[in-house]
Amino acid sequence: MLEYYDGFLRLNNGKLEHGAFQRGAVDTSNLPQIADADLTDEPTIVSDGWKTTFNQVGVIYREITRAHKDDIQKYRDADNYQRTGEIKAENVQRPWINNAATAMRYAVEYGKLSKNLFIIFSGARRVGRGRRIGVRS
Q: Which structural domain, as residue segments, surrounds residue 11?
C-alpha cells in the first residue's frame, strides 16, 4: 500500500492511468527511517466515508438530432445509494458531447470515478521520542 503518492489519476482512451508530478532529484539519504517498532500506538485513520461521494450523475449535453438543444443522460449508482441512504446528485455541463450514447458513457465513467476518487482518508502516526531527533514537527 502506498503511504504517499504525489500524483494524479486520469482516463486515457477508456483506461485509468496514473501520473506523477515531477519534483526533480530528491536526496533521501538524510531522511529518518521510521518503522512499525518506532510507533507508540496504532495509526489513526479518519474518513468521511461516503459523505463526499455522489450516486447520481447527470450529463447535460447538446443533442445533435434535436438541433443541439440541451438534453440529459443520468447514471445512478445503486451501491452508493444503498450505503448512503439518500440521493446525492451532481449535474455536469458537457456542451461538446452531441449524442445520447456518448453522454451516457461519460456519465457512467464519471459516476464510477466519483466512488473511487472522492472518498477522502487522512491519518496520523505517533513516533517515540528517540526517533524524532532531526524530524521537523
A: 7-31+49-119
